[in-house]
Amino acid sequence: MPEYPRQIHLGVFVLGTGNHIAGWRYPGAAQSFEDLSVVQEIARIAERGKFDLIFLGDNLASEPGMHPSFAARFEPLTMLAALAATTTHVGLGATASTTYAEPYNVARMFASLDHLSGGRAAWNAVTSSGGKAAENFGRIHPEHDARYEVAEEFVDVVRGLWDCWDDGAVVRNHATGQYIDPAKVRPLNHEGRFFKVKGPLPTSRTPQGQPIILQAGSSEPGLNLAARTADVVFAVVQDLEEAKQGYVALKSRMPRFGREPWEIAVLPGVMPVVGRTEAEARATLNTLQSFVNPANARAMLSSRMGMDVAGLPLDELVPKDFPLPDTSHGFAKAMLAKAWRERMTWRDMLNLAGAARGHWVICGTPVQIADTLQEWFEAHACDGFNILPPYFPGGFDDFVDLVVPILQERGLYRADYTGTTLREHLGLERPRSRLFHD
Ligand SMILES: Cc1cc2nc3c(=O)[nH]c(=O)nc-3n(C[C@H](O)[C@H](O)[C@H](O)COP(=O)(O)O)c2cc1C
């Protein structure tokens, strides 16, 4: 069980050019997601703010129309390996696709990162919502629910491979010359509907036992996969009541899989636009919005809605019968519900997609932002937040230097790290190998 009172967990969504589509155009903002020094600075700020984790997404395709950081970026595991060397505490999370990767490779990469970082690795298991990746792998993009069927088995294979080594398998006995205790390493011998994987990995049991599993789907099959296997879930939210319902929808299905609700930390994405005054914050957001390239906003909204929105009547209300796309249910559900609630037009939707890509935006003074985060946390709408600074490094500095201290003073958030692994930050136990101990 976690120690009470509950504490807020914080992650940061890293996109070098900022989470706002036009963040890079803000005065003083970082210009590139292909610049190690930019990402290293973001990681330094995250550790100054005692963040649980930094998170790097990935799409397996260059998407220059949507967002500059989706056009040109490093392969995320490679970047995290570099960051492992310059950070000491913050968790290092990255996306790998269950539709386009192989479980053996994914298990090996994250096991390696867990060793390299001393127990800070986290895998964001995504099914790849957009079909663009298919063109790079000579494949046909499977439909939504079929992707999740593969994902269920994929995650089991990865976790099984992480369990092939028991603790204490590397004995290094100088007297006998024995390096490995063969009784503590087993093959997985997995033969399933989609994968056939013998194992073991050439990587011993990792510092966390199992690297942390992140997930971000909120469709029915997405919630089921998360309830069974995730440690952290990124939610898409736009409204407190809806967030509370989504939180219950996920946590209430965990007992079906023999898990306790506290074993998942739900972190909704939020873009905080911080100002010394409310007017200053509003002016910053207005400046950022004025920089949005309309073509980028259209491409982003098309991706979120799963169809080309170019021909839609900009000044008409978003219709009530607009269908959920086959791409990602999470974004579309939250954005459409907001549009219907607030009687938004398609032009308003373009503004929403252009700001935080469909995520929630809060704009205000440090106290106003801290109050809102506290309200959501105490209302059990979430267990913390995935912070999406609009631009780096200034937009992240503002949150860490102005909002985090208020959360700390209120006893809602750690004043310092009490452990060194991501599992410890999350209050999760280090699991024993199920292959050896179940
Ligand atoms: C915070 C956040 C980060 C995500 N990162 C990625 C990513 O890096 N790559 C990706 O293909 N999908 C990413 N997604 C999409 C989801 O993981 C998921 O595949 C998609 O939303 C479809 O799931 P659903 O229909 O169950 O909601 C992300 C979603 C959220 C909310």
From TrEMBL:
Presence of the UniProt keyword Oxidoreductase in the record: yes
CDD domains: Nitrilotriacetate_monoxgenase
Amino-acid positions noted as binding FMN in the UniProt annotation, renumbered to this chain: 58, 95, 144, 148, 218-219
Listed Pfam families: Bac_luciferase (PF00296)
Name of the protein this chain belongs to: LLM class flavin-dependent oxidoreductase
Keyword Glycosyltransferase: no
GO molecular function: monooxygenase activity; oxidoreductase activity, acting on paired donors, with incorporation or reduction of molecular oxygen
Keywords on record: Flavoprotein, FMN, Monooxygenase, Oxidoreductase
Residues of the Luciferase-like domain: 21-379
NCBIfam families in alphabetical order: FMN_nitrolo
Family classification: Belongs to the NtaA/SnaA/DszA monooxygenase family.
